[in-house]
Amino acid sequence: MEKQINNFLEFLQKDKKLTDNTLQSYKRDINQYQEYINKNQIDYLKADETTIKNYLTYLQDNGKKTSTVSRNLASIRSFYQYSVRIKEINEDPTANVQSPKIEKRIPNVLSTKEVELLLEQPTDADLKGIRDKAMLEFAYATGMRVTEIISLNISDVKLSEGYVICRTGVKQRTIPLGAMSLQALKNYMEESRPYLIKSDDTESLFVNINGKRLTRQGFWKIVKYYKEQAHIDKEITPGVLRHSFATHLLQNGADLKSIQTMLGHSDISSTQVYMQFQDEGIKNIYKKTHPRA
């Protein structure tokens, strides 16, 4: 099975053009499945629907979240579909196995005042402060995922046109930048980044103090630091800024389809989770304005 897994991952990389993070996720899920069937002396080529269901139950019994179980099933399904495609097996044992239902959690969202307070924290007193200001403004202005932000290169930002090109695998989307974000980004690119990078050949947009591409962990630490500086009690992550971006757009009249495009959601149902915040806003307006409310 080891050889088959490697061939499958190579197929995903070359034919599907998946990102490294996604590939690693597939690898972890398939390797975990391999450990299970080896432990239970099951030939993966002879696995059936019962085998798959038992494995999902095993994951649940070991405390795995519903979302994790669902993702594991999706990875195994892709693996077996590939095996059918190359005619190593005749039938996909996952074909009739339903994914466990995932309850859509209410995203943690900041108020506009909390966002303003957070974005006010970085100062232009030093190179790091200028960079941090640009990063936080950028994260809230674009709603991009943290992995997408740290993967950006200088060439992806079009300052004069006022937008950024976000690339995820073979897909890409264009996201407009607001005036505040553009100004902070311009300041960073002119007054901070040139002194942080070690070489003019550096392509990374956001770099750390050593001139290297900023990591996910680095971004998270920066957000956490300014959250504490602002004395905001809510948990704040780069993802919370993304949720706040979408919610505030919707509350101010943006249509769901446009928000879906900017967020990069393939399914609009993922974007519809923000509708509940708009509904609450409508309720408040109704109560304040309707004569018989």
Provide a descriptive summary of the structure in words.
The protein is mainly alpha-helical and 293 residues long. It has two domains: 2-85, DNA polymerase, domain 1; 112-286, Orthogonal Bundle (hpI Integrase, Chain A), CATH 1.10.443. 57% of the residues lie in helices and 5% in strands. It has 14 helices and three strands. Strands 1-2-3 form a three-stranded antiparallel sheet, with no helix packed on it. Helix 2 (20-39) packs across helix 4, helix 3 (49-61) packs antiparallel against helix 4 and helix 6 (127-142) crosses helix 11. The longest helix is centred in the N-terminal third of the chain and has 20 residues, at 20-39. The radius of gyration is 23 Å and the shape is elongated.
Task: Detail the topology: elements first, then pairings.
Layout: H1 2-14, H2 20-39, H3 49-61, H4 66-85, H5 112-119, H6 127-142, H7 146-150, E1 157-158, E2 163-168, E3 171-176, H8 179-191, H9 193-196, H10 216-230, H11 238-251, H12 256-263, H13 268-271, H14 275-289
Antiparallel strand pairs: 1-2, 2-3
Question: What does this entry show, briefly?
Answer:
With 293 residues, the protein is mainly alpha-helical.
Task: Please describe the structure with a list of short key phrases separated by commas or semicolons.
2 domains, 293 residues, DNA polymerase, domain 1, 5% strand, 14 helices, hpI Integrase, Chain A, mainly alpha, single chain, 3-stranded antiparallel β-sheet
